[in-house]
Amino acid sequence: MRTVKLGNLQVPVIAVGCMRINKLDKSEAEHFVQEALDLGTNFFDHADIYGGGACEEIFAEAAHMSASVREKMFLQSKCGIRPGIAFDFSKKHILEAVDGSLKRLKTDYLDALLLHRPDALVEPEEVAEAFDILQSTGKVRNFGVSNQNPMQIQLLKKFVKQPIIANQLQLSITNANMISQGIHVNMLDDQAVNRDGSVIDFCRLNDITIQPWSPFQYGFFEGVFLGNEKFPKLNAKIDEISAKYEVSNTTIAMAWLLRHPAHMQPVTGTMNVERLKDCVKAAEIKLTREEWYEIYLSAGNILP
Description:
- By secondary structure, the protein is an alpha/beta fold.
- It contains twelve helices and 14 strands.
- Helix content is 40%, strand content 16%.
């Protein structure tokens, strides 16, 4: 498996999202985790909110977690979303959330912890205190954020000593606003609107790895665009390029993200082993500049 830089680490360029592992029965979950490891995709992305915590528990059971198994994988989890409360980046909640994830995952440490959806009431001094405790106790080795814009990250960085190594953001061929606004600079059309503070450029400048989530979704969990009649031109173009490379449409859609020079680490969401294999194959393909733009335009994006 090809790797990508994440902080000072080299990790698989494809991360395995575990948000839906609670949809599998025990044997299916065991099979999925083992296949992921066999494929070299040993980077597993979690969140305490997934399945109300059940996804972390199911994963640990499926992996038959032990010291020897733990050494073979990179575990990342997220915290900050509280059902019935909304968002919480308080020191108390961060520390309690990590302890909960560690217990459910049956491990002594997380390789990375990301702060989930931005908390409007965040006090970065408290986040800094929490991160210091988690690092000094060995409970968390690396830190990042999710769904945050440059100024939010800058505010954290003013107080947090640890490097922010990742920013998990929604990005796909059909949800490519953060790419489009960089193309439509100083234009008057809707795609010129800078909605994220030029987050791609910011992350590249600050060595923060972008982890695209929902890489096959359109809208906000409205459905997948692959094989969807709502996107005939896009699917026709992807199918054409898929045939050229003799791979699936899933592989080409993932390869589109990997072609971006920001060196992103997409997070899969599938629990289907064959689709995971198709995602992994994307690491072996580098689309041409022409192919990348053809796919981009076929999704309805325009050039100035």
